[in-house]
Amino acid sequence: PADVAEDAATNGNTASNSVSATYDGTAPTVTLAALAGPVAGVYTTTATFSEAVTGLDASDLTLVNASATLSGSGSVYEITLTPAGDGTLSVQIPADVAEDAAGNENTASDAVEAIHDGTPPTVSLSEFTGPADGTFSAEITLSEPSDDFALGDLHLVNATGVLSGAGTGYRLVATPVADGLVSAQVVAGSFTDAAGNANTEPSNLVSVIYDGTAPTVTIAEAPEAFSGAASLSVTILFSEAVSGFEPEGILARNARVIDLSGAGDRYMATIRADGAGDVTLQISAGAARDAAGNDNLASEAVHIENRTVAETQGQIARFMLHRADQLVSNQPGLICLMQGSCGGGALSVNTNEDGLRFSVSTMSSALTAGWPLWMQVQGARSDDPDGDTEYLIGTIGAHQEISDRLYLGVMLQFDHVARNDGIGRIEGSGWLAGPYVVGRLADHPLYFEGRLLWGQTRNTITPFGTYSDRFDTERMLAMARISGEMVFGDVTLMPTVAASHTTDRQQAYIDSLGNVIGAQDIALTRLELGFDARWPVTLGLSEWILEGGIRALHTRSSGSGLTLADSAPVDGTRGRINLGIRHVTRAGGEFSMSGYYDGIGQADYEGYGLEIGYHHDF
C-alpha cells in the first residue's frame, strides 16, 4: 500500500499495483456409477470427476474380464465395457492417471463390477406320457430360470395346452384335438433368462400318435333261433385289437357264458341257453380296451329266438298227426263179423313202402253166447322225412245181435306209439272206448259199419334229448264204412265207401325249463271210395286169386297244431290203383303179393310200393 516505505528524502511510497493468483492444491476425486447392462452385449458406467481433468485414457483403466472404450471430457466420461467371458467383470480408475488444471493428479476411484451371463438359455422336453383322461403330459426343463416363459412359447400341433410351473421346471398338459399326430416344441427366441439372453435354439420335438376313438364291437354269426338248453356259438368282433376281455364283459339274458377264446380283435364265445325265454346278448361298455387305453363302446343287443315252445309243439303236433293216421289205418274191419269171413284166428305180417305191419286177431261172431267177444292186436312201423313211428293197437269188442241184420256192440282199444322226431322222442299210451254198429240191408248184399270212440292218452316227450316231460291228450274217432258185394260168375266185385274223422287235443303244460307249452289240437278227416274185384285163375297146377281195384282218397288235416307240425299227411284228392295175387298153400296158409301206384291226379304227391304177405288161420 502507499506510504509504507520512504526514500532517502523520506518520501512515502505510492501504492503499488495489486497482483493475485488462485492456488489449487487439492487432488481431483472420481466416482464410477454402477455398471449398467448388458445392452447389446456391453456394459456402461459413468466416471464423474470432482473437477475437470485431462489426460485420462482407456488404457489407464484397471479392467477385469473386459475390454473398454472411453468417451467424454472435463469432469464426465463414459466407459463401455465389453466382457471377455462369463463371470465377474470390473473397472476402476487408478490414481494419478488424470490431473486437474492445477496439475493435481486424481485419487483412485472405487471398482465397480457385475456378473456377466452371456450364454443363451436352453430348454428340453421329456417324452409324452399318457394318455390319462384323454390328455398327454410332458416335463419342460430350462437350463436357467426365466420370468417370461409362457404357453405361447410352445408350438403345439393337433392339441391345446395348459402350462404350469416356474423357474426352470414346467409341466405341459396337452389335450388332443383329433386322432393323429400330437407334437410340442419350444420355439427359438421365445423366452429370456435373468440376464436377458433369449434362447437361440428351439427345444427338441416330442410327439405321440393319439388314438382317442373308443373301439366298437359287434356280435356276429349268432344263430337266429335255438331250442332247449342249447349251446350257442357266437363271434365277437372288435374294431381294433383289445385286451382285458373276459366272460364277465358279455351280458347274457336267459343264458350264461361257458367259454371264451380268442385274442386281438376276434373272440369266440360259447353260450349256454337256459331254455326259458329268448336269449339276449350284449357286450358291455368298458369290457376291453385298446392299446391307447380307450374302453370299448357297448355293442348292439343281439336277440336269439327261443323256439323251444314252437319246436316242442311241432313235435307234439307231428306225433298226434301220425298217431291219428295210424289209428285210422289200423282200425279193425267189422263187416266181416256179419259176413262170417273174419275167421277164428289169424296171424298176418306184411311190409310196404311205409315199413312193417302185422296183426294177430281172434275175430268170430260165435266165440261167446249172447255177446260174441272178439279181439285183435295190430302193429306198424313207418318212416317219413321227419322221423319214424312205431305203433301198436289192441282192440277188444263184444256185441249183441239185435237181428240177423244188425249188431250193436262196444269196443275198447289200447294203443301205444313211439316216435323219433329228429333229436326228439315221444312215447304215448292211451285208450279209446265206445259203441259200434254192424248191419246189412234186407235182401241185399250191402253191408255197413260205424263206430264212435272217445279216449285219453298219457305221453312222455323228450324234445331235445336232454329232459323229459309229460302231457295228456283227449281224442275222438268216428268211422263209417259201406261195402257191397256183387258176384258175376267167378268174378266178385266189391264197391266200398268209407269216411273217418279223428281229433286229438293236447292239454297245456309247463316243461322242465319253465316254458308254457300251450294247448293245441289236430284233426284228420279221410274219405274213401273204392271198387275192388277178385277172380280165380289157374297158373300151372295151382289155383290163384287175382285182385285189383281203384280207390279215390280225399284227406284233409286241420287244427291249431297243423301250422307247427311242418309235416302232415298229404291233403287233397288223389287216385290209387292196385293189383295183386293170392294163393292158398297146401299147409293152409295164404300167400299174397300186390303192388300199387298212388297219386293219380295230384301233382305234388306220388307213392308206389310192393306188399308181400302171409296169412295163416289157426
Structure report:
The protein has 3 helices and 40 strands. The strands form 8 sheets. The chain has a 14-stranded antiparallel β-barrel. A hairpin with a 6-residue loop joins strand 39 and strand 40. 30% of the residues are buried.
In short:
With 618 residues, the protein is mainly beta. The model is unreliable at 365-369 (pLDDT under 50).
Major β-sheet, in short?
14 strands, antiparallel, barrel
Q: Strands across the major sheet, in which order?
A: 24-25-26-27-28-29-30-31-33-36-37-38-39-40
Contiguous helical run count: 3
Percent of residues in β-strands: over 45%
From the helix content, strand content and strand pairing, which structural class follows?
Answer: mainly beta
Task: Determine Rg (CA atoms, Å).
Answer: 62 Å
How would you describe the shape? rod-shaped
CATH-defined topology of the largest domain: Lipocalin
Q: How many strand units?
A: 40
CATH superfamily of the largest domain: Autotransporter beta-domain
What percent of the residues sit in helical stretches (DSSP H or I)? under 10%
CATH class of the largest domain: Mainly Beta
